[in-house]
User: Which sequence fits this backbone?
């Protein structure tokens, strides 16, 4: 693809920041990559990653004249950095969640609009071939009218990155925007993407385990929607950091059968009315970098074409607003309407 971008800023050099650096280097080796982090990179990092420069202040980062930036530092810091960059006309891809709070997100969206800045939220699961096919089958009315939806995601937090102490991870710390709801908010995003706006939530959010964390490790949620035929559609969503069998699945139960998306195996399957077994519609296992690569391509394409991104700042704002409603519902033990 054509690319007029000369310099990209990557804010944060944790695992996701490093992944973005590697993908940009592979896609666009001529682009200069500047990293902004709280401490200086050592020479080995700069050489190994092929960085143009590593800086420790936002002012120094802006002096390098980046045309685009990827915000991959802790969610609690996203808005303050993104606002300063957007005010300089720098296009933004912000790692999910767009922030740990809805406070300041609308102001950022407004700044981006005023400065003709592309603001994209990084929900990379939307680029998975299996999830795209899942949505396509539902839109094609594969199982007729939808009666209910059950979504589940979970993995034991200490096993996420076995080479690192989970207690020091973003996921485990409130001050860094951790917790099951924000860290696993992909599920909320794809549910919105497929089924439309949420009317109400009812939830129970808690810390069930002995994990040494100060955030929730479990969330059991009911989401209410209005379906096209006037009936109310409900989605049950279970999210956790505590199960030892990794899972990411969504079952949609309809009048003509059940459609299943398995995000771990990359399969879309259908159990049709009257069948005796599941039919595999798609089985896709792209490499781990695939969705991130497609995400960066989409971000750069939006910049080049001056078109709105496929996953907007408003999409990111919606997810955070729903997370806040889920937490409120749990705290007051009641339905919260949006």
Assistant:
């Amino acid at each position: 693809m054509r690319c007029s971008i000369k310099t990209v800023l990557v804010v944060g050099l944790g695992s996701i920041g490093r992944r973005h650096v590697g993908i940009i280097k592979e896609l666009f080796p001529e682009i200069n990559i500047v990293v902004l982090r709280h401490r200086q990179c050592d020479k080995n990092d700069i050489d190994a990653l092929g960085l143009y420069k590593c800086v420790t202040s936002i002012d120094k980062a802006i002096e390098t004249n980046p045309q685009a930036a990827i915000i991959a530092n802790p969610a609690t810091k996203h808005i303050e950095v993104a606002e300063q960059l957007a005010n300089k006309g720098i296009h933004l891809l912000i790692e999910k969640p767009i922030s740990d709070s809805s406070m300041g997100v609308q102001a950022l969206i407004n700044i981006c609009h005023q400065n003709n800045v592309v603001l994209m939220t990084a929900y990379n699961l939307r680029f998975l071939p299996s999830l795209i096919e899942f949505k396509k089958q539902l839109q094609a009315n594969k199982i007729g009218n939808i009666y209910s939806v059950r979504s589940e995601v979970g993995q034991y937090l200490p096993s996420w990155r076995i080479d690192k102490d989970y207690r020091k991870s973003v996921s485990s710390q409130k001050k860094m925007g951790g917790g099951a709801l924000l860290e696993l908010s992909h599920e909320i995003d794809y549910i919105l993407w497929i089924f439309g706006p949420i009317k109400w939530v009812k939830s129970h959010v808690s810390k069930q385990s002995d994990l040494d964390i100060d955030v929730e490790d479990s969330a059991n949620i009911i989401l209410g929607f209005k379906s096209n035929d006037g009936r109310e559609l409900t989605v049950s969503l279970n999210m956790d950091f505590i199960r030892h069998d990794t899972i990411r699945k969504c079952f949609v139960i309809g009048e003509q059968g059940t459609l299943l998306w398995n995000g771990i195996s990359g399969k879309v399957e259908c159990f049709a009315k009257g069948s005796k077994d599941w039919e595999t519609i798609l089985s896709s296992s792209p490499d781990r970098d695939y969705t991130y690569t497609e995400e960066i391509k989409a971000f750069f394409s939006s910049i080049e074409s001056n078109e709105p991104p496929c996953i907007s700042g408003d999409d990111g704002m919606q997810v955070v607003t729903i997370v806040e409603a889920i937490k409120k519902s749990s705290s007051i033990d009641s339905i919260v309407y949006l």
User: Anything to note?
Assistant: The CA atoms of residues 181 and 323 lie 6 Å apart. The chain has a mean pLDDT of 95. The first helix runs from residue 15 to 27. The first strand starts at residue 7 and ends at 11.
